[in-house]
Amino acid sequence: MTLPLALLPPLTILPEVADALATGRAVVALESTIITHGMPFPQNVAAARAVEAEIRANGAVPATIAVVGGQILVGLSADQLDDLGRTPDAMKLSRADLAACLAQGRTGATTVAATMICARLAGIDVFATGGIGGVHRGAETSFDISADLRELAHTAVTVIAAGAKAILDLPKTLEVLETLGVPVIAYSQDDFPAFWARSSGLPAPLRMDTAGQIAAAHLMRARLGLPGGQLVANPIPAASEIPLSVIGPVIEQALAEAAAQGIAAKQVTPFLLDRIFALTEGRSLAANIDLVLNNARLGAAIAREIASARQ
Ligand code: PSU
């Protein structure tokens, strides 16, 4: 029995992605908030294209996810991607606002949380991004904790990120992930990475050295019926790293400006990223693009391992 259309999610899957999913080939989801709120135009569109190309070059099909005119698009055409890159006022969609945006026929970019939900609906296991949201500094009074963390506990997608930025409180972020039962896997090192820096100085709870190990853990979670995903923390390539001693003072300045200007809630992360790009004169943006490409490569390798294990 097929469900009436009104009961199905409003999902439009690009033919290339639908074909790959139907034939069991590797697919890697990508988010769109990084395009609309994470990087300036036109570097955002160029970076999104380069990330898609990197996934293809590594034997998987990219599926950039966004909401356009009340439809979840899984895989964007070149024109759709370009249009989104020029829409900085697109809604920033997390779990709380995804359904409202769709019901109102609006357009929005998906955060890590919303991209996980949409990837799952489409049957995609692996999602590569830059950094995840986490526990903001001062959360003991502001309660500002990204919905990304709870989504990792809910939705069975393996997310590859370069750890989390030191704009966040990293020890508290790891604590909350532990409480939520989310596996945090550092790739090929012991420490949890800190986005622009290869190490946060904090040990990661788990370490894996191959894409095959990560794929096997993902598949084992499904066999156990465990809800929720895995966070794979992949350090930025050494050549692109900005050490904490350099990026640390810049982060402090951006945080002080955010506090002085009363920036809160959803505006905090985009504001800090924008200020850090300006204060480092683009060095942080170049590093950001390199680490996303690196995560795309690992994501493609994990997706290929999952696809071949299911053959
Ligand atoms: N971290 C980055 N770049 C980003 C984001 C996070 O380095 O673009 C985006 C992601 O989409 C993430 C969201 O899901 O910000 C988290 O926002 P918040 O802190 O408001 O939950």
From TrEMBL:
Cofactor note: Binds 1 Mn(2+) ion per subunit.
Enzyme class: lyase
Binding site for substrate: K92, V112, S146, A147, D148
Gene3D superfamilies xref list: Indigoidine synthase domain (3.40.1790.10)
Keyword tags: Glycosidase, Hydrolase, Lyase, Manganese, Metal-binding
Function: Catalyzes the reversible cleavage of pseudouridine 5'-phosphate (PsiMP) to ribose 5-phosphate and uracil. Functions biologically in the cleavage direction, as part of a pseudouridine degradation pathway.
Family membership: Belongs to the pseudouridine-5'-phosphate glycosidase family.
Statement: the UniProt record of this protein carries the keyword Disulfide bond: no
GO molecular function: hydrolase activity, acting on glycosyl bonds; metal ion binding; pseudouridylate synthase activity
Gene Ontology biological process terms, A to Z: nucleobase catabolic process
Domain of life of the organism encoding this protein: Bacteria
Pfam families recorded: Indigoidine_A
List of residues binding Mn(2+): D144
GO cellular component: a single term: cytoplasm
Name under which the protein is recorded: Pseudouridine-5'-phosphate glycosidase
Catalytic activity field: D-ribose 5-phosphate + uracil = psi-UMP + H2O
Gene name of the record: psuG
EC number in record: 4.2.1.70
Subunit structure, interactors included: Homotrimer.
